[in-house]
Amino acid sequence: MSPSLQLSEPIADKMTPHQIITALQSTMNAHDEEGLVALFSRDAFVRDGGLRYSGLTGIRCWIQDCFERYDLSIKILAVSGENTSWHFEATVAGNFEGSPVRLDHYLTIEEGNISSLEI
User: Fold this and answer.
1) May I ask the CATH architecture of the domain 14-118?
2) Does residue 54 or residue 5 have the better pLDDT?
């Protein structure tokens, strides 16, 4: 039996930016709250729809809201970036008016974790 994942031990530690972005898609689509939270650094933030969610607690609230209110899924269409700055375009589908939509996602990835995500 493997030990449970602790928030102080992010799963993203040894992942490349492309692997992190792929993991973001797969955990979002699986509604894997713990896996998704583990991709972010402790002091990360998400900016979505004009709102800012800070730290792992804030990000967890954003994730729960996405899953519960919108039943979101994403399909990544294109990825670009270098060093710490990354961008991906994705089709986002769920229980909201106008679904599905194409949205740009801007990430900062530092030391193997997402430190910011802006949608």
Assistant:
1) Roll (3.10)
2) 54
